[in-house]
Specification:
By secondary structure, this protein is α/β, with parallel strands linked by helices. It has a single domain, classed as P-loop containing nucleotide triphosphate hydrolases (Rossmann fold), CATH 3.40.50. About 35% of the residues lie in helices and about 25% in strands. It has a 9-stranded mixed beta sheet with strand order 5-4-6-7-3-8-9-10-11, sandwiched between helices. α3 links the parallel β4 and β5. α4 runs parallel beside α6. The protein is globular. It starts with a strand and ends in a 7-residue tail after the last strand. The structure holds adenosine-5'-triphosphate and magnesium ion. Adenosine-5'-triphosphate binds next to α2 and β10.
Length: about 230
Amino acid sequence: MKLSTGIEGLDAILGGGIPKGYVVAVIGSYGTGKTTLGLHFIYEGLKNGESCIVLSFDEDEESIMRNAKSVGMDLGKFNNVQVIRLEAMGVKKIFERIESELPELIKNLNASRMLIDSISVLETLFSDQERYQILSSFKRILKSAGVTAIITSEADKYLPTASKYGILEYICDGMICLKMIRKSELDEPTLGLEVVKMRGVKHSRKPKPYMITERGIVVYEEAEVF
Ligand SMILES: Nc1ncnc2c1ncn2[C@@H]1O[C@H](COP(=O)(O)OP(=O)(O)OP(=O)(O)O)[C@@H](O)[C@H]1O
Ligand SMILES: [Mg+2]
């Protein structure tokens, strides 16, 4: 079974959507629309009557609601969504809270979709070893709860298809990259979406142009970037 991402063109590339139970990384540099893509996925679930969780390490709840609304998604009209912001606190404390509270939260809400935005902010607080631990811990919790999740991450400075710390791609079943592609410094950049991996799914790897509009992300799956 596949879950629609709420973005028509992306669903078309994925042959229907994200396979149920998958943990998918959305990687891109700042302002490429990672949060927006994740919110489309959540909004689609809400419209279907599914319960959803947004765990933010980045924007606060108000800012998330406001930005979602500015691209046509009014999260406020649903009561089956829980937006939680974990502020930068001690590493140990975060780890404890996630381990102890997240499984219960997913269970109590009977959540089927989750957005974690952005993992890079959290990763910044950890050492290399801890980073691997926290990511595998997330994966274990999400998998055992059977929730389908999107985890956003900043891209590596030099490699747009890699996450900032290079760990996320290994724990995820799928990976979508959002890239700003410039023909030359003087041209307006083109935004390109690339499905880098999606286990068990036949998909194109060709970057497809997309735009962020007042109705959110629109992917032109039949067009070419250049
Ligand atoms: N109503 C709108 N119309 C057109 N473009 C918009 C609109 N709202 C937002 N945008 C564009 O979307 C971008 C923000 O998208 P989003 O916050 O999803 O990106 P992000 O990758 O999560 O960024 P960050 O790294 O800052 O978290 C804005 O910088 C702006 O360029
Ligand atoms: Mg963001």
